[in-house]
UniProtKB/TrEMBL annotation:
Keywords: 4Fe-4S, Iron, Iron-sulfur, Metal-binding, S-adenosyl-L-methionine
Cofactor dependence: [4Fe-4S] cluster
SMART domains according to UniProt: Elp3
Stretches assigned to the Radical SAM core domain: 12-228
InterPro entries linked to this entry: 4Fe4S-binding_SPASM_dom, Aldolase_TIM, Elp3/MiaA/NifB-like_rSAM, PqqE-like, Radical_SAM_PqqE_MftC-like, rSAM, rSAM_sf
GO molecular function: 4 iron, 4 sulfur cluster binding; catalytic activity; metal ion binding
Name this polypeptide is given: Heme biosynthesis protein
Phylogenetic placement of the source organism: Bacteria, Candidatus Blackallbacteria
Pfam families in UniProt: Radical_SAM, SPASM
Taxonomic superkingdom: Bacteria
Length: 398
């Protein structure tokens, strides 16, 4: 592992990178929220129960734990857990919407051992507040960045891009640079949770033809301006800018090497359920509950976590792709949320380019709604159709 990078060829599988949802209680109700966060889950772990998990993580070799929600600081588990992780030699970091990230709260977090905080910024002011569904949330996010930096913690940012905010990409880069942000994770909104209820906001696969070159241009610029842009696991895949996007250093040759869920990544839900990735739909992917089983038993024995160690066959375009052996169908939760199972992911730059060069494109049409539960999804039909060459490298309107 180089920094936060996971080396997939490492023979020993262990949960190096854990994302822990402390609560579903939240001070936002975002349109794109996969967990539909607003109020707490039933039977969330108590501080005493949560602290018992820390030595189990240390025993398995966990190096970093990202605390999320909902909004993690709303949980009574939050500060005791930050301290316990730091004392166990595990790096605690956090993702936050920043609504109530006061200077006092930030200082308390830093004193407890928090090292880095990523603030979610989902566009410039208009788009951010439309997505976050709360007036003044943009100002609160910027104030949070200031409070985090003043408290001595590293500031990073993360953004879900979709059709509501994709026009803000370059403007956000400029803003984040002014805010002193040094790393920015970019991903696309997946059709999970509330986003499944908003199909018009989701990218169509051909939107990547315009979006990916813009991200690549900013990545190149950021490498010279001390703002590192890294793609989330559901963005990209083997377009001409693949090595540039995946590499943290200029001239790197990194590339996407398949989903790491259940191999080097682990997700814990606030009620103690364990998944191979925090964003996977809960029902088919929960491997056990920490109230009933040890973390080691779940990690080593649960079939629901082992699905990436022996992945299901690819299908559709992904089965015929020249990058199939290494990519393995891209991000599993993104594909499952669209088509009801992994192994065929239309959000792929290589795929969109391949089809566009033949005058074709794929269109996603929702044919079944989500049920209204955390990490649920509907069902989409994938329609291949003619693509006008004049549209080839331009995002279409919704």
């Amino acid at each position: 592992m180089k920094g936060r990078q996971i080396e997939p060829e490492q023979p020993k599988l262990f949960p190096a990178y854990v994302v822990w949802e402390l609560t579903l209680s939240c001070d936002h109700a975002c349109l794109h929220c996969g967990s539909r966060a607003a109020v707490s889950r039933q039977q969330e772990l108590s501080p005493e129960e949560a602290l018992l998990i820390v030595p189990q993580l240390a025993e398995l070799g966990t190096r970093e734990v990202v605390l999320i929600g909902g909004e993690a600081y709303l949980s009574p588990v939050f500060l005791p857990l930050v301290s316990a992780l730091a004392e166990a030699g595990i790096t605690p970091v956090m993702t936050t919407g920043g609504w109530d990230m006061t200077p006092e709260r930030a200082r308390t977090m830093a004193q407890a051992g928090m090292k880095r905080v990523s603030v979610s910024l989902d566009g410039l002011e208009k788009a951010h507040q439309q997505i976050r569904q709360r007036r003044d949330s943009f100002k609160h996010a910027l104030r949070a960045m200031t409070a985090i930096g003043d408290a001595g913690m590293d500031i990073s940012a993360n953004t879900h891009f979709n059709r509501l905010n994709q026009a803000d990409l370059e403007g956000l880069y400029t803003l984040l640079k002014m805010q002193g942000v040094r790393s920015w994770q970019i991903q696309i909104t997946a059709a999970l949770g509330r986003a499944a209820d908003q199909p018009e906001m989701l990218f169509q696969p051909w939107d990547l033809l315009d979006f990916m070159p813009r991200v690549a241009a900013l990545k190149q610029r950021g490498l010279t301006e001390n703002l590192l842009i890294m793609p989330g696991n559901n963005l990209g895949y083997f377009g001409p800018e693949e090595a540039l996007l995946r590499s943290p250093l200029p001239g790197g040759q990194d590339f996407f090497q398949g989903c790491q869920a259940g191999k080097f990544v682990l997700g814990i839900e606030s009620n103690g359920d364990v998944k191979g990735c925090p964003s996977l739909p809960s029902l088919p992917y929960v491997g056990g509950n920490l109230r009933n089983h040890s973390l080691r038993d779940i990690w080593e024995k649960a079939a629901a976590l082992a699905f990436r160690r022996n992945p299901s066959p690819l299908w559709g375009f992904c089965a015929t792709c020249p990058f199939a052996e290494v990519c393995k169908g891209g991000c599993n939760f993104t594909a499952h949320a669209l088509l009801g199972r992994p192994g065929n992911n239309p959000y792929c730059h290589f795929r969109a380019r391949n089809l566009a060069n033949k005058g074709r494109r794929e269109r996603l049409l929702r044919i079944a709604p989500a049920q209204g539960n955390p990490f649920d999804h509907g069902l989409f039909e994938l329609i291949e159709e003619e693509f006008n060459p004049s549209e080839r490298y331009h995002s279409a309107s919704p």
